[in-house]
Amino acid sequence: MIPFTDEELLPAVEQSIEKVKPMLALDGGGMKLLGVKNGKVFVQLQGACVGCSASNQTLKYGIERQLRMDIHPELEVINLAEGMEHMMEEIAKS
After folding, report:
1. Could you give the CA distance from residue 3 to residue 21 in angstroms, rounded to a whole number?
2. What is the CATH number of the domain that holds 43?
3. CA dihedral angle for residue 71, residue 91, residue 81, residue 46, rounded to 10 degrees
4. pLDDT tens for residues 46-82?
5. Does 1 reside within a domain?
6. Rounded to 5 degrees, what angle do the CA atoms 61, 31, 68 make?
7. Phi and psi for 78 in degrees, rounded to 5?
8. How many domains does the chain have?
9. Which residue(s) pair with 43 in the sheet?
10. Where does the pLDDT of residue 21 fall: very low under 50, low under 70, confident under 90, or very high at 90 and above?
11. DSSP for residue 91
């Protein structure tokens, strides 16, 4: 169980994500933070990251790993494709 509220997590998540954005930009990619719900961090990969075969590894071993090191080891990062933002609430409950 993550001992922080979503509101408490948000500024820390924003700071941590700033650390990985340059890595994504090197490959022509990017990422937008959509929000934090139930301790799950929702992002949207952008640019060259969309449809890239390595995007799952980027998500788990780049973004999620950084967040877990910086904030809490149980944080989970979920990528929502463009147009799927409305699914955030439903996915956060599962």
Report:
1. 26
2. 3.30.300.130
3. -10
4. 988 888 888 888 888 889 999 999 999 999 999 999 8
5. no
6. 35
7. -125, 125
8. 1
9. 33, 79
10. very high
11. H
Beta-carbon neighbour count of residue 36 at 10 Å? 24
Could you tell me the pTM of the whole model? Answer: 0.91
Tell me the C-alpha distance between 83 and 81, whole Å. 6
Burial of 81 (0-12, 13-18, 19+ CB in 10 A): exposed
Maximal CA-CA distance, the chain: 35
94 pLDDT tier (thresholds 50, 70, 90): confident
Extract the tokens encoding 25.
């930009």
Residue carrying the six token digits 């340059």: 22
Structure tokens of 13? 């998540």
What residues make up the domain containing 42? 6-93
Amino acid at 66: Q
